């Protein structure tokens, strides 16, 4: 009897042990591929931080977005994810351009922007209707377009990036700041150009100080403005401070009261940002936003200065795919012709 009990105990022990081994293997399942080969569980590509870059692809200037993307992609080893924002009728064109060129290697998402969110918020401007294009306001709505990223770069389409975009992404934002911009008074080498072509670099050029609502802001008209064509943004702070709602409020006030000097400042997209972010933004390294290249068809920077620049911005009327314009060769280095033939550069002999 004693022997019989001992055998039963041994059998029970073996049964429990077998069950434990089976359960252990299920929980700690080892991939069958490990039999003959090794798997790199932490490949650098998977661990590398993704850098989201938002660029708009507008009808008639899609070549600008393509050149900007091409310049960024060619000058970095960083893990860049491009968010290419367009309107419904332009999306097939940009998709085809990317898929039928060397840009097919980039990581990208195409996002449709619904212009209905702007209904009743934009005051018509007969002097420069191109500045009222819906995509000019995409930067207001970054959290609606980007969901999984804490930090985002927004770039106007008329830029070329000559440096490693990782440097721009590493821009430090002070605690409580939702965005970083470039001050319009930051580069001494641009001051002469600013004076020579009569550009505005203070709040006076963007806001109508004859209006009581503007004076009530308590912002000196001589305060240096900033340029929102290059933005490094913190999405958590942006949402926390309800930046989008604040910007929409000032769009609405302008519709009702005509508060902005849009003919001087160049459009109605910048003034709300100047108001909302006044005294509450971090700064971008000046070489990461060398601008005013599109303000005059004659004023030129020195070649040495342009080679030092990390990012070039043709803000103003004279675009590098158009004629007349300056420093077009720097832009053309990155342009990729449109496979469909719809977009063409305008040149003196074209």
Automatic annotation (TrEMBL):
Belongs to the glycosyltransferase 8 family. This is Glycosyltransferase 8 domain-containing protein 2. The keyword Cell division does not apply. It comes from Chelydra serpentina. It comes from the Eukaryota. Keywords: Glycoprotein, Glycosyltransferase, Membrane, Signal-anchor, Transferase, Transmembrane, Transmembrane helix. The chain crosses the membrane at residues 6-24. It is a single-pass type II membrane protein. The lineage of its organism: Eukaryota, Metazoa, Chordata, Craniata, Vertebrata. It is found in: Membrane. GO terms for cellular component: Golgi apparatus; membrane.
